[in-house]
Amino acid sequence: MKIHIIRHGDPDYSIDSLTEKGWREAELLSRRIARLPIDDFYCSPLGRAKDTLKPTLEKVKKDFEVLPWLREFEGRKEASTPGKTRIAWDIPPSLWCNEMNYYTLDRWTDTSWMKDSTAPKAYPEVQEGIDRLLLRYGWRRDGMAYYGGEDKEIALFCHFGLGSLVMGYLLGIPPVVAQNSFFLAPTSVTTLVTETDTTGCSHFRATGVGDISHLYAGDEPMSESGLYPNFEK
Fold first, then answer.
1. Which CATH class is domain 2-77+104-217?
2. Cα–Cα distance for residue pair 32/208, rounded to 1 Å
3. Does residue 162 contact residue 71 with C-beta atoms inside 8 Å?
4. Looking at the whole model, is its pTM more than 0.85?
5. How far apart are CA 82 and CA 62, in angstroms?
6. Least packed by Cβ within 10 Å: which of 111, 112, 118, 223?
7. Which of 72, 181, 173, 73 is nearest to 120 (CA)?
8. Distance between CA atoms of 46 and 176, rounded to whole angstroms?
9. pLDDT (tens digit, 9 = 90+) per residue, 179-204?
């Protein structure tokens, strides 16, 4: 099984679509993705993800399915600034880097930032969503492993926060670490493949994370949308 997790292009959030740069990125992405033997395309219900997928579909002449759980992750918490909220993949390092429970799969919800956020309640929908999708292809999860299944190739057009959670869940990386330690740039491609041993036990391995080689090939610079080199607590 091969899964491509693809973030939407440079966003114009005011209209839930793409900027002019984002449309250029989506076109360059389409030239890359259209050459791959992808069996099925899945997409977030949000406009910026659909618009990113559009140039690819025009080339491959295939349909796609909208999956509601592929929308951007809704984990949030009130920020120190009145009336504002902070997203789960935008947590200042001083609030999580030295709290070891964030680095675990079973205790990350019992942490100072997460206790008052919506992330712990929203995360199970992501877990259930990807597992339901994989069951369509015969892949059954048992603990951290998967069994059975078809050798299919699929693409998920989604978002930074959501995509990093799917990646983390399949690779066994705690949510906070996955969301705050990896940057998935607009139109980046993260590819996971299954490795199976002689007992039939399978695990996903990343062959590429946040790859934007298609942008380099088209002399298009990386968008830093979603990257926070400096931010207030």
1. alpha beta
2. 14
3. yes
4. yes
5. 46
6. 112
7. 73
8. 23
9. 999 999 999 999 999 999 999 999 99
